[in-house]
Fold these 2 entries.
Entry 1:
Amino acid sequence: MSGGLVGECTQEPAGRREVERVSPPARLPDPALALRSGPALCTWSLSLAPPPRLPWAACRGGANAGRRRADDWGRGQGTCAPAGVHVGPRPVPLRRVRLCPVRYGPARSRFAMGSGAAAGSVRTRYLVYFQYLGTDFNGVAAVRGAQRAIGVQNYLEEAAERLNSVVPVKLTISSRTDAGVHALSNAAHLDVQRRSGQPPFSPEVLAKALNTHLRHPAIRVLQAFRVPSDFHARYSATSRTYLYRLATGCPQPDQLSVFEQNRCWALRADSLDVAAMEEAAQHLLGTHDFSAFQSAGSPTTSSVRTLRRASVSPDLPSPFVLPQESRRLRFWSLEFESQSFLYRQVRRMTAVLVAVGLGALTPAQVKMILESRDPLGRHQTRVAPAHGLFLKSVLYGGHGDLATGNPAWAQWDRQPDDFSPETRGPKAGGLE
C-alpha cells in the first residue's frame, strides 16, 4: 500500500525527458510518514514538484551511486545501475548551437569574417574622378548621421555599397568644397575588397557600376584608375585649379538666364577694369603667408601657400543666353592654381580682385592686404558667392591626371610591381 501511495502521489507526467544542469537532488518523502499521516499527507505529496533530475553521467557511480535516477523517478526502477550498465531511456543529447560572431567573437563561430568568405580576398585601391553641381548639396564631404544623404560623398558611398565589398567602402576626397561650390573634376580614392576567388573590378567596370547606382542626377563619375595601395587622393595631389565665373551687365540676379543661375556671380556693373585686376593678381603670385585670405578659425596649422597662377580673362558667350540678352551680358573667368589652398582662400581673393575691377581698391592695396596677414581687415572680410566657383582639375604630377591620358596609371595597371612610389608629390591638403 505504501508503495502504491508513493508511486501515485509522485507520478511524473509523461513526455518529460530534458537533460538539465547538475544540482543536488531533493530529499524524497518518507513512505512510512505518509502511512502515519493518512490522506492529508497524500494530498500534500500530490502537489509536490519532482526533484531536479540528474544527467545520465552523474548517476553512474561516485557520490551519486545509490540515489534514484532522475529518468526513473516514480517508475519503481530502484537506484541507479552500476557504472557501464544502461537502465531506462537515455537522455536527449544537447544540440550544437551556432554562436553569433559579433557577440561571441570569431573564434567561436565558423561564420566569422576572415575564416570564411574574406579569407584570401584582395583589396584594390582606385582613383576616381567625378563631377557635380553643388547647388543641391551641403558640400562634397559626407554628413554622418543624417537621415538622408546631403553631401556628394554620401551619394558616392551609397553607390559604392552596391559593389558588395567585403569591407565597407569609404571615399577619401581630394579637395573639399563648400555648399554650393561645383566641380568640373574632383578626385577621390577608395578601396574595394572582393571575396576570395573573385578578380578585382576593372576601372571601366567600376566607373560604370558607380554611375549605375548613383541616385542623384547632379553627380557623375568621369573615370577610374587602379593605383598603388599607398596612393592618397589628397596628399598625393601636386596641383589644384579653381575657376570662378563672373557675369557683368546684369542689374538684377533674376534677369540672368535660368540656365546660368547658380553658375556665376552676377554683377550690376557693365564692365571691369581687367588690366588693374591682372596687376593686382601679380602681387598674389609666389609663396606667401595668405592668412589675410583665409577664414578666421581655420584648422590649418600653416597658412603659407604657393600660388602658381592667377589670371583674369574674358569668357566665351554663354550658349544659354538669348541673343537679345547677350548684348549687355559679358562673362569673365578667374583661374587660380596651387598645390593646395586655405579654407575659402579662392573666394576671398576673388572678392578682392573684383573690388579692384570695380575701382573700390587699387592693386597696391591688394599687396598691403596680403602683407597685413589680418583675416579680419575691412576689405578682405568679403567672400565671393559660392555658386560661381568651380573646382576645375586635380593633378598628380602626370600620373592619374584626367587631362593627360594617364599613361603612368595605365602602365602600372599592367605591371604593378614596376611602379615607383617616389613619383608621388609632397603631402598637401585641398580646402575651399
Entry 2:
Amino acid sequence: MPGQPLDVTTAAVRAVATAEGLDAGQPWIDAAAARISAGPLGSPGA
C-alpha cells in the first residue's frame, strides 16, 4: 500500500500474515509496513 498511512499498511500486512498462517506479532511486520508505506525506491521524495 505505497503512500498509505502507516497504520493502514501495518493492518494490511498483519492481515496477510495471519491469512498465511504466520504470527502477526513478529517484529518484521512493523519494519515491512514502514518500508511499504514509504513508497517505491527511486521515486521522487523516497
